[in-house]
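Quick one, C-alpha cells below. Sequence please?
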C-alpha cells in the first residue's frame, strides 16, 4: 500500500507555508513590475489605439510568447523545445497540485491511473526532459556556460531537485519504502519551498517579465506606427 504523505507532513502545514511564501512572491513580483513601470507604460498608453486593437495585440503576444514560446535568436529548435517543455511541465504540475488540493484535501494517496496523478506525472516528465536538454546545452556550450548567471543556475538546480525528488517520493511511496520516503519527501518539500522563495531573484520571474516587456514592445511599435508615442522606448534590457 502506498505511503500516505499526509502522515509524514500534515497538509495544513504545507498549505500555510505555501500560502505564506506565495504572498511574499506576489509582493516581490509586484515590486518588480513597479520598477519596470516606465518600460511597460506603453501597455496602458496602448488603449489609445482602441480596445479592439489593444486586445488584438494582447492575444497575439500571449499566443506567440506564452503559448508557443517564441524564441527570437534564430528560432533555435533545441531552445524552443526546452523552454516549452519546462513551461508546460511546470503548468501541468501546478494544475495537478491545485486539483489534488481541491479534490483530495486529506492528501490520501490516489491510484496511479487517477487523472490528477497522470497530469502531474506527464508534467513532471516534460519538466525533467526540458531541464535535461538545458543541462546538456550548458555543459557542452562554453559560450552559454560563460554567460550563465547565478540566478539561472540556482533556478535550474532547484527545478531539477524538485522534479527529481518528486518522482523519487512517488516511487518510494508506491514501493512502500518507509525507511527513505520521509527523507526524500522532506527534500522535495524544501526544494519546492526554496524554488518559490527565490522566485523573484532567479529566472522564475523571467516567465512573467519577458512576455510583459515583449507585450510593451508590441504596443510601443503600434503606437509609433501611428505617431502616438515618440521616441521609441528601448525595452527588454531589464531581463537581459
Amino acid at each position: 500500500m502506498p505511503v500516505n504523505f499526509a502522515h509524514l507532513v500534515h497538509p495544513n502545514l504545507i498549505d500555510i507555508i505555501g500560502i505564506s511564501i506565495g504572498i511574499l512572491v506576489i509582493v516581490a513580483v509586484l515590486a518588480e513590475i513597479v520598477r519596470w513601470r516606465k518600460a511597460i507604460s506603453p501597455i496602458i498608453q496602448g488603449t489609445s489605439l482602441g480596445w479592439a486593437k489593444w486586445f488584438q495585440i494582447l492575444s497575439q503576444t500571449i499566443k506567440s510568447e506564452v503559448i508557443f514560446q517564441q524564441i527570437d535568436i534564430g528560432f533555435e529548435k533545441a531552445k524552443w523545445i526546452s523552454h516549452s517543455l519546462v513551461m508546460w511541465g511546470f503548468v501541468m504540475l501546478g494544475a495537478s497540485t491545485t486539483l489534488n488540493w481541491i479534490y483530495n484535501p486529506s492528501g490520501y494517496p490516489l491510484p496511479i491511473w487517477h487523472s490528477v496523478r497522470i497530469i502531474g506525472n506527464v508534467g513532471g516528465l516534460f519538466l525533467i526532459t526540458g531541464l535535461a536538454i538545458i543541462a546538456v546545452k550548458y555543459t557542452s556550450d562554453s559560450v552559454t556556460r560563460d554567460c550563465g548567471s547565478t540566478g539561472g543556475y540556482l533556478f535550474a538546480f532547484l527545478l531539477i531537485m524538485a522534479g527529481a525528488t518528486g518522482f523519487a517520493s512517488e516511487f518510494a511511496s508506491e514501493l512502500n519504502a518507509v525507511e527513505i520516503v520521509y527523507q526524500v519527501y522532506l527534500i522535495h518539500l524544501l526544494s519546492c519551498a526554496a524554488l518559490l522563495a527565490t522566485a523573484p531573484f532567479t529566472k522564475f520571474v523571467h516567465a512573467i517579465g519577458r512576455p510583459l516587456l515583449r507585450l510593451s514592445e508590441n504596443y510601443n511599435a503600434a503606437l509609433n506606427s501611428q505617431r502616438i508615442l515618440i521616441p521609441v522606448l528601448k525595452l527588454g534590457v531589464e531581463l537581459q
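The mean pLDDT is 80. Residues 77-103 form the longest helix (27 residues).
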